[in-house]
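Notebook p. 47: complex prediction with zinc ion.
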Amino acid sequence: MHCAIQKAEVLDGAHLMQILWQDGTESFYPAVWLRDNCQCPHCYLDSAKARKFLVESLDVNIGIKDLSFDRKRVLITWPSEHYSEFEADWLKKRCFSQQAREKLQRELFFPECQYWGSELQLPTLDFEDVLKNDEQAYKWLSSLKRVGIVRLTGASNKRGEVVKLGKRIGFLYLTFYGHTWQVQDKIDANNVAYTTGKLSFHTDYPALHHPPGVQLLHCIKQTVTGGDSEIVDGFNVCRQLQEKNPRAFQILSSTFVDFTDIGVDYCDFSVQSKHKIIELDDKGQVIRINFNNATRDTIFDVPVEKVQPFYAALKEFVDLMNCKEFKFTFKMNPGDVITFDNWRLLHGRSSYEAGTEISRHLEGAYADWDVVMSRLRILRRSVQNRN
Ligand SMILES: [Zn+2]
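Predicted complex, structure tokens below:
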């Protein structure tokens, strides 16, 4: 982006700067914002890319005393004789028009979302390629954000592969189940996942107020007798629920449900949380599904008359997830790693036969979306600079 300044002037009694760009567009910048964002070494610590200037020092009614410009920058003198310089590209990027703000927010947060159902073509990349090659790693994390799941193939059949992915991202998300955890049939299981039973659609760990954003699941050993994986695009199911049954959607997106998880693993734990099963942002967009029937508490903090309608709504939601047009079924093979958005997808598995020895073994781990998104932004920059 290179845009030259055609003209810069002060409006609104010195409280606003207008820039007319060479391409004919215009932008407006409040004086208070310009003063707050002065990029000089007194006001901004470039080594930290952080503001030094304090709100305590800011005159919120400040005006521009003097303004000059050339094609590449504007120069502002403040009433105190403090002096600020702003580059054209820097200003253009931060234009307050709705269009410019939307463009910048898209670049920052990768909001593109591809909904899917049973027709999903599971995005698949090579495990070693993702570890070694930035372009492949960028494909991995951008697809993970957009589609919600990526399968990596060609990992070993030994523990330790999800830790390598964690290091590729930055670091993993430690929970009470450890840095990584082993999904296999266990005596006196401290989690329903550690049995041979069917797991119906769930998100992991809604018992935490900040549930893991991304899940990594590596298949080390797979049984022949069942243990198939099922996934569903929770955001897509929510769209359908909102359209077909707005009352159920309204209940699930407004009722706080208690979750609990009590036991011992990495250390002893007694975890409680409250979540809306369908979590919306302030624009009414679904941002997270919080649902695990196993850890949904017997304690339910709602007035008695709301109990049965809640169950009716939940049943509608679960029935929709189980429709064959929505769910995608596959089987993991040893050396496969699935990486998926645990805020968006619900996952499950079919039961399998318990034997005298372990017939199925997955190693899992979690990562935080903030850490994954950070790596995604850095990978985009390194991939785009190369091309
Ligand atoms: Zn300054």
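Notes: The pocket of zinc ion is lined by residues 38, 40, 42-43, 82, 84 (CB under 6 Å). The longest strand covers residues 256-264.
Next step: compare against the earlier run before touching the bench.
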